[in-house]
Each structure stands twice: as C-alpha cells, then as structure tokens.
Amino acid sequence: MKKMVIRITTIFLAIALLFSFTACGTNEPAKATTSSTTTTTATVEPMKDITLTVWHSAFTSANEKDMAEDQWQINKFFQQFEDENPGVTIDSVYQADQQVA
C-alpha cells in the first residue's frame, strides 16, 4: 500500500513538472515588428586620463618585503597594465595586515 502511494505521488509530480515546462513555451511564431530607423549623431569626447588606486596586502609575499616596491611582482603587473593601456595610471598602496605588521 505504501509503495503504491509513493508510485502515484511520483507519477503525479512527474506529470506536474512536465506541464510546468510546457506551459512556459509557446507555439506561436515570432511576430514581426516594424520600427522606424532614426539616425542620431553623437560626439564622442576623448577619454580623460584615469588613475586607479589599488590597496593590497595579500599579493605581496614575505620575501618581497625587503625589496623596493617597484620590484614587487604585483607592481610589475600594474606597470605592464599601464603600458598596455595608455591614459591609465595605477596607484598601488600597500596595506600591511595584522600578521605582517
């Protein structure tokens, strides 16, 4: 008796799930919409120089602490990014965490 109730419940849930999936779709073809074409002219201003400030501590290894900051690997990545993206300057600010300080 208990197995029969479980089977009926399972079948009922499967049918309900099937109907919920088919109810979301439609068989109607997409309707064509008409639209008018307007041409607008926009002036694009040249991009201004931008400075990004990045605060970091997790990206500096323990043996980099004795080096000059421009030799740190993360600052080398920042310099490469600046070289590839003219007009972008990255201001790298080191924030010592509690374990390092």
Compose a concise summary of this entry.
The chain is α+β, with helices and mostly antiparallel strands and 101 residues long. The protein has two helices and two strands; from the N terminus they run H-E-H-E.
Explain the overall architecture.
This protein is of the alpha+beta class. Helices cover about 35% and strands about 15% of the residues. Strand 1, helix 2 (about 75-85) and strand 2 form a beta-alpha-beta unit. The longest helix has 23 residues, at about 1-25. It has a two-stranded parallel sheet.
Write the layout of secondary structure elements.
Layout: H1 2-24, E1 50-56, H2 73-84, E2 88-94
Parallel strand pairs: 1-2
**Sheet with most strands:** 2 strands, parallel
Strand content: 5-15%
Strand order of the largest sheet: 1-2
The number of helices is 2
Topology, number of strands: 2
Structural class: alpha+beta
Could you tell me the mean pLDDT? 75
Instruction: Return Rg in Å.
Output: 31 Å
Q: Helix amount, in percent? A: 25-40%
Instruction: Flag low-confidence runs.
Output: none
H/E order of the elements? Answer: HEHE
Q: Distance between termini? A: 70 Å
Shape designation: flat
List keywords for this structure.
101 residues; 2 strands
